[in-house]
């Protein structure tokens, strides 16, 4: 699996794509693969304030619950409604099936995120353990 | 972060095979086991609608042999083994003197004076020690044959057709919870039992545990089941299948702190067969009017998935119990759970809530098993 180079990544396995001051957030292919069949996505409501490094929702597979950590601080502007009825879209297209869009309040936070290459190095270490 | 020293996980003879075909592996009670291959939901559905193959070699096998073996079995197991005929098996449990669980087991009567007790993986050493200690005064030998067998479970409505291609034994002559010996994949004297842990029809076969034989049989079963859509299935599907069928899992629905009445397993408890370990305590509990809490089936009414360990709340938000197993049910397409609740609340259609990450989410008490396989129409 290739990790898009125009995305930034967290060590908690979220990705974010930046367009202007809006960040689109999802979970990585590595995350969906470790979770297995995803059956439930708990996303916040539009207008919710999210904070970098804090839990903003969860993704559940048949066998496990995984918290979602926001890569940035800001306000939720949109949620992917399609995931309510088809959460398995995350399994088939993790890097396309976004979960929320966030209006960034501090673009400088992006500097701390991982590049695609650094993220791939990070997960190689995770799996090598 | 300091990396803890790795603990060597135990492996079944099929471990290399599982990795080769891309299984996701997990540590299950100290065993390196496949949790899923192609995907949990697909594997679950294969067993409900076609056939699935499980490596369950991590299960343990204790043999009790000798003139005193029936008395020994009767002493350590709550069901009545004197009712078993040669070739028959039954579900039972080994109990502590308090009437709580050492483990749940399947007792097979191999012949007069010869019994095979199949036990759980996570409790193998504890169980064998328990059996050895408690059968000492009977005239019989306890042997741990766990590592002698690769145990494969072939489960699902097409299991019989699959296995029939690999043996000349008339499988229709083996009823549920009975077994026979026969040649399977060219291996003489293979134990073929019509047992399982999925709520579906199916068989468990016990073949020699060397790697080449184990891998050969595994592959032959997959080949035989191909036309029925057979899938190798992991512990993930095994867990959701047994949960839909409301079968107990050790350290979840049953444990050393839970007694037989609480676990709703008293239909396998034969107090009138004579004294055995745990019988006195259970008679007392019965005489005092039964247990204060009972295992109940829950179905989520509102959106949310109950998980193991989540609190069960009453309508006022007070904690009244705990979820022992909870999951989405892939076949039923509902979110279900088993939970301990006060006995007076364990009534069908009762309304409770499950606390999911701080929020009460409505659930309803439903009859168990959640899933019952359709009766065969000839």
Per the principal axes of the C-alpha atoms, what is the gross shape of chain B? globular
Helix content percent band of chain B: 10-25%
Largest sheet of chain A: 6 strands, antiparallel
User: pLDDT average of chain A, as an integer?
Assistant: 95
H/I helix tally of chain A = 4
CATH H level of chain A: which superfamily?
RNA polymerase II/Efflux pump adaptor protein, barrel-sandwich hybrid domain
Amino- and carboxy-terminal Cα gap of chain B: 62 Å
The N- to C-terminal Cα distance of chain A equals 20 Å
CATH architecture verdict of the domain at 15-59 and 148-244 in chain B: 2-Layer Sandwich
Helix and strand pattern of chain A: EEEHEEEEEHHEH
Write up what this structure looks like.
The complex is a heterodimer of chains A (129) and B (378). Chain A is 22% helix and 35% strand. Chain A is of the alpha+beta class and 129 residues long. Chain A has a single domain (7-124), classed as OB fold (Dihydrolipoamide Acetyltransferase, E2P) (Beta Barrel). In chain A, a hairpin with a 3-residue loop joins β6 and β7. The radius of gyration of chain A is 14 Å and the shape is globular. Chain B has 378 residues and is an alpha+beta fold. Among the domains of chain B are: 15-59 and 148-244, Probable tRNA modification gtpase trme, domain 1 (Gyrase A, domain 2), CATH 3.30.1360.120; 292-366, Elongation Factor Tu (Ef-tu), domain 3. Chain B is 20% helix and 33% strand. Chain B has helices at residues 15-20, 40-49, 69-76, 124-134, 159-164, 211-225, 235-244, 279-287; strands at 24-28, 31-36, 52-55, 60-65, 89-95, 101-111, 114-119, 141-144, 149-155, 179-184, 187-193, 202-208, 231-232, 293-300, 311-313, 319-329, 334-342, 351-356, 359-366. In chain B, the strands form four sheets. Chain B has a six-stranded mixed beta sheet. In chain B, α2 packs across α7 (235-244). The longest helix of chain B is centred in the middle third of the chain and has 15 residues, at 211-225. Chain B starts with 14 loop residues before the first helix and ends in a 12-residue tail after the last strand. Classes of the chains: A alpha+beta (129), B alpha+beta (378). The A-B interface holds A 34, 36-37, 39-40, 58, 60-63, 65, 129 and B 3, 24, 35-36, 39-41, 236, 239-240, 303, 305, 307, 327-328, 330, 357.
